[in-house]
Design a protein that fits this description.
The complex is a heterodimer. Chain A is α+β, with helices and mostly antiparallel strands. Chain A has seven helices and six strands, in the order βαββαββαααβαα. In chain A, the strands form three sheets. A two-stranded antiparallel ribbon of chain A has the order 1-6. Chain A has a two-stranded antiparallel ribbon with strand order 2-3. In chain A, strand 2 and strand 3 form a beta hairpin. Chain B has a single domain (2-26, 88-326), classed as Fumarate Reductase Cytochrome B subunit (Up-down Bundle). In chain B, strands 2-3 form a two-stranded antiparallel ribbon.
Chain lengths: 214, 328
């Protein structure tokens, strides 16, 4: 059984926000809802700036699921965390528990009127048998069509990878091996040779860690 | 009876809750391990500096307008989850269950406090129409808010498995909306009640003696009491402190339109839950004493009048004062 994961390669992410746009377009989310975002740390500082594309991480031990008062979240066979909007009461607890800021609400109104929570579904739709209704409520179900999430498919630098955790980690590891040199093609951060090797080793270890999530 | 209030019941439940409360800071553990692990897997190829920043919750820049979107990893989330799920949920269940258990045991061991002298049939007005209106306004809202609030904290463990999803969803949506819309009305009631009864609730020497005699438990003699006894005053001040905490934290949570941060909401959710559970556990005692626990007490809040023999037994100083005033 596949264990679906996202992986964002910060050495490649150029903060083009293409993933954000692709997501918005594929899922036709409500105004104000942005399931994916790019966060840039140390913005504008040469050599230090790093960008990462974030959305729901589909955590193995999901905090949103643990705190939801209506238990509207459920894990799928692919290890995705989806939720039932019919049971969502818009209390916002998932947002307060989520470390990645993935849950989105259409409103922030008085008396806690937030509307139904919306978040990344890994383009896997939601619990609705009617496909039209499913698309309206949860957005695209590309997985059913044998496709991967549009954000990753459209990533111009292939920084954002989506798919089976094992395969994604293998791709990343291979990359790390090839780019572990100073001024290599994709490296956005220049490192000293020794440091580069150390970083490459570190990254390879991390990539190995990534495969252990299955 | 009110005079049994302070020592046995109150102490038992409040001590239990205090233990739970004092244990809370101990839960501030390095609980971000899971978030770190998830993030490690999802964004591996980064420098150690980046990692240090990210796991410490440093903010960056983003095009997203969602509140807190510029923070890559909000590390407080996992701590909040831990406090809510590992401490507040079980702690609240222990407090409420313990309170009910203590009351049941007290009832079985001591039983109802009966009137010592037969009713005289003569009535004294104890609670005016205003008093009773405010009391029952607050009481009804308290019960509704309690049931809906407990639903939000606990219902998924016992109600969800037995209800069809549609009914479950409808109930929870209703519970959340009822809780959020009636909350501010409760706040008004609590405030009115506090202001209306403030003048009766300053402690004096009579109360000190009342406490020393344990509200009547120590020794045979009835300790004297004025219009309100020491136990009732304690309950009043519990409402002033804990009740206002519930109200204020609830109002912060009820209006996310002011853009409170996630961290603020986490803090106030904890305060709101802990304070409400304390208030509910204490309210069980109040309800018992005012109904089943004391013969002749409930009619005071129902009709406004109490029997003279009840007044003499429980609030002798007040009884004397009333008699003096009416000159009979």
């Amino acid at each position: 059984m596949a264990r679906m994961k996202f992986l964002c390669d910060s050495e490649r992410c150029i903060e083009c926000n293409g993933c954000v746009t692709a997501c918005k377009n594929a899922n036709e989310t409500e105004w104000g809802i942005q399931r994916r975002r790019v966060v840039t740390l140390d913005d504008g500082e040469v050599g230090k700036e790093v960008s990462i594309s974030v959305a729901c991480m589909h955590c193995s031990d999901a905090p949103c699921m643990a705190v939801c008062p209506t238990d509207c979240f459920y894990p799928t066979e692919d290890g995705l965390i989806l939720h039932n909007k019919d049971a969502c009461i818009g209390c916002g607890y998932c947002l307060y528990a989520c470390p990645f800021g993935a849950p989105q609400f259409p409103k922030q109104g008085a008396f806690g009127a937030r509307g139904k929570m919306d978040k990344c579904t890994f383009c896997a739709g939601g619990p609705e048998s009617d496909p039209v209704l499913e698309e309206q409520k949860y957005g695209a179900n590309r997985l059913r069509e044998g496709k991967l999430p549009l954000c990753a498919e459209m990533c111009s630098t292939k920084a954002l990878l989506a798919g089976d955790a094992q395969q994604v980690a293998d791709i990343f590891r291979e990359r790390v091996v090839y780019r572990g040199h100073r001024n290599s093609a994709w490296g956005s951060v220049e490192h000293e040779a020794a440091e580069s090797e150390q970083l490459a080793q570190q990254a390879a270890d991390l990539a190995y860690d990534a495969t252990q999530s299955v | 009876m009110e005079r049994y209030w302070s020592v046995r019941d109150a102490k038992t439940w409040l001590m239990l809750l205090l233990v739970v409360l004092m244990a809370l800071p101990a839960t501030v553990l390095a609980q971000s391990a899971d978030a770190r692990r998830e993030a490690f897997q999802a964004m591996p190829g980064t420098t150690p500096e980046f990692w240090r920043d990210a796991v410490e919750g440093v903010s960056g820049r983003t095009q997203s307008n969602s509140p807190g979107a510029d923070t890559l990893i909000m590390v407080e989330g996992e701590r909040w989850r831990e406090i809510r799920n590992q401490w507040i949920s079980p702690g609240g269940a222990i407090a409420l269950g313990g309170s009910l258990l203590a009351i049941t045991l007290f009832y079985l061991l001591v039983g109802q406090v009966k009137l010592e002298n037969p009713r005289t049939g003569k009535k004294i007005e104890r609670w005016t129409r205003w008093d009773r209106t405010i009391h029952w306004y607050v009481a009804v809202l308290f019960i509704i808010l309690g049931v809906t609030g407990l639903s939000i904290l606990y219902a998924k463990w016992f109600l969800m498995p037995i209800l069809p999803t549609s009914v479950w969803a409808a109930w929870m949506t209703a519970a959340k909306n009822i809780h959020n819309y009636l909350g501010p009305l409760f706040a008004i009631g609590v405030l009115a009640m506090i202001l209306k009864w403030l003048k009766h609730n300053f402690f004096n020497m009579t109360d000190l003696k009342w406490f020393l005699k344990g509200g009547g438990i120590v020794g045979k003699a009835h300790p004297s009491a004025g219009y309100l006894n020491g136990g009732e005053k304690v309950w009043y001040w519990v409402i002033v402190t804990v009740g206002l905490t519930v109200v204020v934290s609830g109002l912060v949570l009820d209006f996310p339109n002011f853009g409170q941060s996630r961290e603020t909401m986490q803090l106030f959710l904890i305060i709101h839950a802990v304070a409400s559970l304390i208030l509910m556990a204490a309210a069980f005692g109040h309800i018992y004493i005012g109904t089943l626990g004391t013969e002749g007490a409930f009619e005071g809040m129902k009709t406004g009048y109490v029997d003279e023999s009840w007044a003499k037994q429980h609030h002798d100083l007040w009884y004397d004062a009333v008699k003096k005033k009416t000159g009979s």
